[in-house]
Amino acid sequence: GHEAVLSCPSISNVSLLLVTWKRNCSSCCLLSYRSDQNETSKLNCSERITWKYSPASDPALRIYPVDLGDEGNYTCETASSEGNFHFFSSLTVIVPPLVTLTHDKSRVAVCQASAGKPAADISWIPASNHSSEEEFHHPNGTVTRVSYFGWATSSFPSVTCLVTHPAMN
């Protein structure tokens, strides 16, 4: 859902003749700019994939909004009077989980971190060996993790579920 910007660094001050971005798969997007004719072209690109700036001044690639299908390896190829250059970028998409905390009548707390990528980590405060965990892998690469904390025999008035994930503070 956020913006991804992949940069294509300039090797020298010589102006670029041609810049091409492509994703490393056969039918993926191809975005190019030819400076001598001030011409841009797109092949198999969605409207979400564009130049971040003017390709003549900065040939960075912009993907907005990013989705899981955008994950992969991208190549920026540049051509100038000094030669041809290739720059490689790898895009990894992370997805924050949806977190819910519920409980049932038998004093079991259920903390669920749904559809995160990678899987979220769940811990309990206070720490206890009375918890168990399940994990469900979804076809789109996301993971739901569920942790159960039984505090029926404990003297704690409450428990706290702590979910940690790279996409969350």
UniProtKB/TrEMBL annotation:
GO terms for molecular function: signaling receptor activity. GO terms for cellular component: external side of plasma membrane. Its main location: membrane. It holds the Pfam family C2-set_2. InterPro entries: CD200R, CD80_C2-set, Ig-like_dom, Ig-like_dom_sf, Ig-like_fold, Ig_V-set. Keywords: Disulfide bond, Glycoprotein, Membrane, Receptor, Transmembrane, Transmembrane helix. One of its GO terms (biological process) is regulation of neuroinflammatory response. SUPFAM superfamilies: Immunoglobulin. Signal peptide: none annotated. It is a single-pass membrane protein. It is found in: Membrane. Residues 1-92 form the Ig-like domain. Belongs to the CD200R family. This is MOR1A protein. It comes from Machaerirhynchus nigripectus. The lineage of its organism: Eukaryota, Metazoa, Chordata, Craniata, Vertebrata.
